[in-house]
Amino acid sequence: MAEPAAALGEGLSQVGVVEGPGWSRPGLDVAAGRFPLSVERHVGGMVERLVPGVTTVTPHARYYALHGLVATHAEETGLAVPAAQTLLRRAEVALAAVSFTHHPQALAWLPRAHGADALARRLEAGVVTVAEAEVPGKGGYVGNAWGFWGPYAGSEVELGILGTGPMPVPGPRLDRAAVRDGLGEVLELARQDTLYVGDLASLGERLCVCAGGDRPDGAWLARLLCEPNASAEAGSRAATRRQTIQLLARVVATHPVSRFTQDVGQVLAFGDFLTTDPVTRDIDAAAAWRGVALRNYAVGAWRRLWSWLVEQVDGLLPVEELADRFAEELPDMTVDAFLSSLPATQSTTGVPLPAEHALRASDEALPLAELRVLATSALRTGELTGRVRDAFLGQRGVELGPEWVQRRLEEARPMNLRDVARQLTHDLVARSQRIALSKARRGADGSLWLPTRLHEHAGLLYRTSKEGRGDVGLRLDQLGSVLATCGVLRYDDQHWSVTRSGKALVD
Description:
By secondary structure, this protein is mostly helical. The chain has helices spanning 4-13, 41-50, 61-77, 81-102, 120-125, 130-133, 149-158, 176-190, 197-200, 204-207, 216-226, 237-254, 260-269, 273-276, 285-311, 319-328, 335-340, 355-360, 366-379, 386-393, 402-411, 417-439, 476-484, 500-506, and strands at residues 28-29, 127-129, 162-163, 169-170, 194-196, 317-318, 441-442, 448-449, 454-457, 460-463, 489-492, 495-498.
């Protein structure tokens, strides 16, 4: 790299233009960031408190046990960090290989074992050279030196399975005997140089990621998650997790559930089941779940609407034209008439009706449908009460929150809806740029990282990629699959049920 002074002189010698400092890499890194409107924080924070120990990236119960097993072995044999990393990766390769032999295709209710997709070519060929497969990076099953421990580490510490530290160490709640009895054979496979897929088939019933419910490690983890004694610790994170599991299990036991987020989510948000059922009406966390489930409709509406707006930007597009495109998707009517056309949000007895769900299932164009969802959600600010309202609103009066939307629409009642949409477009673009700048970081090489897909300069917009429009995860799917793979729930004939042992734990 040129010295700064030399680079400066060199730049001046070329038609008198300074090309840039020699001590930093030229250019702007515009790699896309996440959460461009930053509307997800409240829902994410509430869900973290309601489901401690399970996240959106922890779908498999057996990895909790596997990492505890590796931590136990590393401690007992005095492994240093590099050796522990290698053991963990080799064990994860073995678990993925056995799981593949048991279920070559992904199950309807459970994602494939971590790394199975990256190992697919080797697994389909029937031979896995472990020393090659476990190497992190291109050609291996994972990119990280610690394999898939990272996504699970926080949850494992939360549950007391592991302690804190630079490598997995046994925690106070780890049952060493249970993880050895349940998954000890994985360590034997991890020591082998070559795994032959045909030889692993007989191990699937014991070692597959789907099989923990019938094994000692699954029974231990089920007790740890359900925490039968947590009821005496009112307000603790363990007690809250237990209440969430009780709530999920009760809905499963009383409703046809094939997908947790879709089916359980609607029961949490709408109707009188939570307040009339003899079990759920006594679960304190039920009110918080109702507020969060309702708020998530508004969060999803902002994400869908923003994704649609970004998608309209083709080439260089003036902000005003983007605003016009939004306006053209809406009826020529006043905001007052628009609000009067919204579906009913509650029954005569004050029970939330599934207005948002009906709007999203309609055949209306996305911009209009999602604007209706936002307006419907805003109406709930004056209808919900108590803990449900607190969980729904979160921090009061924040930009793009339900109260903010309600206030904007009330003030705009005499205005044309299309004019309000034009102003909203300008507001959203400005907000996205502020958020991107707040997240910008200077790299070690001097370049600037700006996490955004939509860029604005002198009133012109251009995009580098499209935005996602999926809903924020409520962790219900992951909680359900973890509970299933440790024996609390069962999936049969496209529906979920509570097992006998699971019922004993949650009752």
